[in-house]
Design a protein that fits this description.
The protein has 310 residues and is of the alpha/beta class. It has two domains: 107 residues, no CATH class; 191 residues. Helix content is 52%, strand content 12%. It contains 14 helices and six strands. Strands 1, 2, 3, 4, 5 and 6 form a six-stranded mixed beta sheet that branches.
């Protein structure tokens, strides 16, 4: 059985095992405790009771610290519920139920602003007349990056679903999710998850991403979003230059622009790297499809907590 107390006393080892710093873990536990207690109160009061609240058996893992540790190890290592049960001295069915309950509160505990920051900034941008007031409150929104990432999924038994899931780029069956990152590498928007065959530009259009972005912000995209600047001339959207048909090579100015563009856009790739340190978002996903997007959002919130919170 895992020796939790010993792990809590070794911050460096704790970070390697869980994927987040110990001081961030303490913040996560503090916020999770309030949300957990509130969720449990609602659950227990949701139907008529014969006994007062508090009757019956307690959770075998009574400490919220250990519950959160179990969840982090599940995300970090993508191990089975049976192995988690062995490590934490629980039945696999108990682990499954515990993960389901924690999953619903994890995003809010790790980063409660993930769902609201961009929409609040957009509302402010429509009220103010200049950039100064907007960027005084939201300095990180001066420069945004948009990109989509793919993750392998298990092969579907349905022929039509396989056609939808197959990514020509990855030559595999995948899920695709688009994110927007701010200048400080904070994730500020996450779309729904789409099958691997859906193009980046189609996700951009279907999610109406352009309507979420303040017009004052500069947006750096890759060539997967070709056509977006022409369709939205009122926004400051920049793509790298692409060689035209018959053109032997780009000009010196165009090559330099592409180099500077890539240096700025590398931030979003760093964010994807942080997300994929959690193996549940990098290895072949073997869970239920309905749970995937919430897992991706939970990991993104953890990344924001670990790298971008003060």
């Amino acid at each position: 059985m895992l020796r939790y107390e010993k792990l809590f006393q070794k911050p460096a080892l704790f970070t390697r095992i869980t994927g987040i710093k110990f001081e961030k873990f303490e913040i996560l536990v503090m916020k999770s405790k309030n949300l957990w207690n509130e969720a449990e109160r609602k659950r227990l009061c949701s139907r008529p009771r014969k006994r007062a609240i508090g009757g019956g058996r307690n959770y075998k893992l009574e400490s919220i610290e250990v519950k959160v540790l179990l969840m982090l190890m599940f995300y970090r290592h993508n191990i089975t519920h049976e192995l988690l049960g062995f490590l934490f001295d629980l039945d696999a069915s108990n682990v499954t139920r515990l993960i389901a309950k924690l999953s619903s509160i994890f995003e809010k505990a790790a980063d409660p602003t993930l769902k609201t920051l961009l929409s609040q900034a957009k509302k402010l941008s429509e009220k103010v007349c200049n950039e100064v007031e907007l960027f005084t409150k939201y300095p990180e929104l001066k420069e945004l990056c948009i990109d989509a990432t793919e993750q392998r999924k298990q092969r579907s038994k349905d022929t039509e679903q396989r056609k939808l899931d197959y990514s020509g780029k990855k030559k595999a069956f995948t899920y695709k999710t688009q994110i927007i990152t701010a200048e400080n590498q904070r994730i500020i928007d996450i779309t729904a998850t789409y099958p691997g065959s859906v193009h980046d530009k189609k996700i951009f259009d279907k999610e109406k991403t352009i309507k979420k972005i303040p017009k004052q912000s500069t947006c750096l995209d890759d060539l997967g979003y070709l056509g977006v600047p022409k369709e939205n001339p009122e926004h400051k959207i920049f793509l790298p230059y692409k060689k035209k048909k018959g053109q032997k090579k780009l000009s010196e100015v165009e090559r330099e622009f592409n180099k500077q563009h890539a240096r700025k856009r590398i931030k979003v790739e760093h964010v994807f790297g942080r997300i994929k340190k959690f193996r549940i978002c990098s290895e072949t996903y073997r869970g239920r499809e309905v749970n995937y997007n919430q897992i991706f959002r939970n990991i993104s919130a953890l990344v924001n907590l670990n790298y971008c919170s003060t």
